[in-house]
Amino acid sequence: MTTPIEHAGAGPKAPILQVQDLVVTFPGRRGSSTTVIHGVSFDLAAGETLSLVGESGSGKTTIGRAILGLAPVTTGTINLRGRAISNVPRRERRKLAKDIQVVFQDPYSSLNPSMTVESILVEPLAAAGVTEGRARVRELLDAVGLPDNAGSRYPREFSGGQRQRIAIARALALRPSVIVCDEPTSALDVTTQATVLTLFKELQEATGVAYLFISHDLGVVNEISDRIAVLYRGEIVEIGEAHQVATAPRHAYTRRLQMAAPVADPAKQRIRRNQRLALAASTASASAGDGQPITTS
Amino acid sequence: MTAGPERTALEDEVSLAKEPPRRSVTRLLLRHPLGAPCLVLLLMVVLVAVFAPWVAPWGPQETDLAATNAPPLTPGHLLGGDSAGLDILSRLIWGSRQTVVAVLIVVIVSVAIGVTTGLAAGFYRGRLDGAVGFVSDVIMSLPGIVLLIALYALTGPNIPVAMAVFGVIVAPTYYRLVRAIVLGVRNELYVDAARVVGLSDFRIVGRHVLWAVRAPVIIQTSFVMAAGIGIEAGISFLGLGDPASASWGIVLQNSFNGIYNNPWGVVWPALAVSLTILALILLGNALSDVLQSSARSKVLPKRRRREIVAASARQREEQPVNDSILVGSSDDVILSVRGLRIAYPDAQGGVNEVVHGVDLDVRRGEIHGLVGESGSGKSQIAFSTLGILPREAVILGGSILLDGEDLLADEARMRAARGRRIAYIPQEPMSNLDPSFTIGSQLSRGLRAARPMPKKDAKKLLVDLLVRVGITDPERVLRLYPHEISGGMAQRVLICGAVASDPDIIIADEPTTALDVTVQAEVLELLRELDHERGLAMILVTHNLGVVADICDVVSVMKDGNIVERADVDSLFAAPNQPYTQQLLASSRTVELMEV
Predict the structure, then answer these.
(1) Among B517, B524, B532, B582, the residue to mutate for chain A (most A Cβ within 10 A)
(2) Which of B46, B216, B318, B508 has the most other CB atoms within 10 Å of its CB?
(3) Three-state DSSP class for residue B336
(4) Neighbours of B285 (CB within 10 A)
């Protein structure tokens, strides 16, 4: 059996995950290298949702991958419950699987098309040596709102939203204390996105899991987060309580992000557009976003 | 309950339509016109080899002096005898044993070496990859047949060893094939997910990677088997095999030595070798059809298309559908779509209609938003106005009128309008620029195709336009290659290309979806300005209601291949009529920052 999540032991604000001065450098050709994360620090408390928001090239996905052990940590530390988890051998790393899980952006390529939903969900359980697999699979399917008979079907028989539910069920299988959600709703339709976000919140209430939620959309992040960190070119430019960051940002870049997202109301959007244009005219850095090279973050 | 209405049927109409029916590979192979005969022939060879002692009328070395150089159909010797009085049929039957064993050795050795190294090198990359790659290159550069002849000096006539060495020589073909596939698969998110759930590398390769290389390896194996038979017969024929044993190559050699006395003798072993090789190669092709069928699109034959269109027209006459939304026509309308119906082939050989009789009018100077979720058919409409629907799509009926002329009725008219009067702004700016040409040459070529003019004039016009779309140093940008510019700039370049030919209408298919939100705002601003300056009409396909509110004048909401609601932008957002529109609006407002 996996350990249940410690509700009692850790206080509400005790950090479960600590990232300190994280620097990620990717080696390039002929000895050159690119640093994409320049000393990022933040804490994630148990049961909390912290969002990393930023545009392409801001490094938000790289931070998530570094925490998951999928990207190199050049300097800095990542601690889980006070224990360093960065740059540990792969054997050690695999023991952490119980505690840190992931939901990726693309529900099409994150599920192996040749495996049934049941074998996808049993896989993490088997890797951890859990034997009560089948019963747990039914429990998981139920938790994410999929029918019992979904287990014997293949991913291609499901819609994008349903596939993302399968991916969420896989992440929950080992009862982790942290789930890294890398743009989990950006590939979904707007109505599906709303239901999946609700599911994330319900699951958090039920299991006490903490989310590190990565997104480019300040609106989505505002809907789900307790706190928001805004990333710009590999640095956190603003971090704070979600509502404050999303609606009354202090940093100019956050403000630009906020103003740029169009709202689904023509009258309000006209006002917002004029304000945005005024803001753009008053800031010299108005066109900074365009000159930025596109890198896969 | 949180699930809400989940759509499965039309989530992604095109990919679902392409989905092959799920039948077992064996059944598909047996139904394949080449698969079944080849399988039967190969099975016969194997059975004959296994049951040789019972099937063969004579022993492998049993001579019948009366049958020396006997012609075919001699009693007791169906295919005749060779110069030593051995029965050719029996020798071939016994020889098939050596052929089967030789092929098994080649396949086992080459798959064991090639697939294992390919998996390891592709998965771990690094030094291992470099070292294995070097060894593989060395082996591939060795002349195989010369090596096998040289081997004879060491081992004497020893077919199993020779075949094992041949297995090593062909192993690099497996290595290269497998490595290339693994390089693609190791970056799949499901492999990352498997790492995160704590699977060992061994299990990741076994569960996730091996599956992806299965089909190509099976196909390759049938070709390697064919090569193995050829090589075994070849070295036996050259006299490097054991002359005491029976093998197709040795029978051929014996018959060849006696070709003047019994010319028929060479035909039978040659036939056995050629037919088996042919069967293996055709089986390989059949396997590749069956295992990789999903990679091929299903384009219906012309006749079947006409039948379907006619049947659909008849059905439509029988039960006329009352179009719920009446489209007002006025002189101002530049483009109108009438009763457009589009279908895709389904697995059962019929078609699946994805757009059900859509009417749409776009006026001059109007930005018409076409909103819907994935699978609603909005992109299908955009593509059909440009005549760039996928080849397998079938237009069941309807018309697309540009200034009153039906583009669907005449392919030449469509071609004349596309790029000149109707321009296109795509969703993915990067994949719509050719990476091997500079921005300047692509823009200039497109412009001069639409409006013939000297190069110099084209360049001047483009430089002015690039400045207009917000590029500050146009001369430099024209000399750059697509990978040297950002996504936002690429979209500006494409917008420049779209307006350069001075079109009447622009079809913009999710033009800002791939862009960052700050860049999106700038691109929308640009589109709005261009539209006002030039009095362009525009169809803007999007799923984002914020974008619609920002830029559109009129909105059509699509669901499941129908337009369910149409109104001017202010009234649609203020008072949506249809429950679906209300649901869309509610969903997008939950994730919106209304406070400014």
Answers:
(1) B517
(2) B508
(3) strand
(4) 16
Given a cut of 90, whether residue B135 has pLDDT beyond it is yes
CA dist., res. B162 & res. B245, Å (int)? 15
Contact A193 B591 (CB under 8 A): yes
The Cα A86–Cα A52 span in angstroms is: 19
Backbone angles phi, psi at B530, to 5 degrees: -60, -40
Q: What is the DSSP letter of B328?
A: P
ipTM metric: 0.84
Q: B230, B213, B288: which is closest to B34 by C-alpha?
A: B288
Would you state the structure tokens that stand for residue B529, as one six-digit string? 């300005």
- Token duo for residue B34: 């080449």
The low-confidence residues of chain A, meaning pLDDT below 50, are 1-12, 284-297
At A65, give phi and psi (nearest 5°). Answer: -70, -35
Asked if residues B178 and B118 have their Cβ atoms less than 8 Å apart, the reply is yes
The crossing angle, in degrees rounded to 10, of helices B267-291 and B35-50 is 130
Concatenated DSSP letters for A197-230? HHHHHHHHHHH--EEEEEES-HHHHHHH-SEEEE
Q: Which amino acid is at B71?
A: P
For residue B566, the cross-strand partners are B556
End-to-end CA distance of chain A: 36
Q: Cβ distance B89 to B268 under 8 Å?
A: yes
φ and ψ at residue A223, rounded to 5 degrees: -70, -30
Q: Return d(Cα B409, Cα B412) in angstroms, integer.
A: 9
pLDDT of residue B519 exceeding 80, the answer is: yes
3-state SS, one letter per residue, for B402-429: ECCEECCCCHHHHHHHECCCEEEECCCC
CA–chain centroid gap for B548, Å, is: 34
- pLDDT attached to residue A11: 43
pLDDT at B235 exceeding the cut of 80? yes
Instruction: Give, for B362, the enclosing helix (H) or strand (E).
Output: strand B351-363
Query: Cα–Cα distance between A92 and A82 in angstroms, integer?
Result: 15
The interaxial angle of helices B487-500 and B455-468, nearest 10 deg, is: 130
Cα separation of the two ends of chain B: 33
φ, ψ of residue B37 to 5 degrees: the values are -60, -40
For B153-192, give the secondary structure using H, E and C. Answer: HHHCCCHHHHHHHHHHHHHHHHHHHHHHHHHHHCCCHHHH
Sheet of B562-568, strand order? B422-425, B505-509, B537-542, B367-371, B554-559, B562-568
Place of tokens 């090589």: B231
Give the residue from chain B lying closest to A126, CA to CA. B199
> Do A57 and A295 form a contact (C-beta atoms < 8 A)?
yes
A40/chain B closest Cα distance in angstroms: 22
d(CA B266, CA B536): 78
Task: Give CA–CA dist B163/B240, Å, rounded.
Answer: 12
* B543 close to B372: Cβ distance less than 8 angstroms: yes
Q: Where are the alpha helices (DSSP H) in B238-301?
A: 248-257, 267-291
Residue with the two structure tokens 């350990």 = A3
Which positions 165-184 of A are in contact with B (Cβ < 8 Å)?
167, 170, 173-174
Q: What global pTM score does this model have?
A: 0.80
Interface of B with A in 3-32 (CB under 8 A): 3-8, 11-12, 19
**A126, exposed or middle or buried, with CB in 10 Å at 0-12, 13-18, 19+?**
middle
Distance between CA atoms of residues B369 and B163, nearest Å: 67
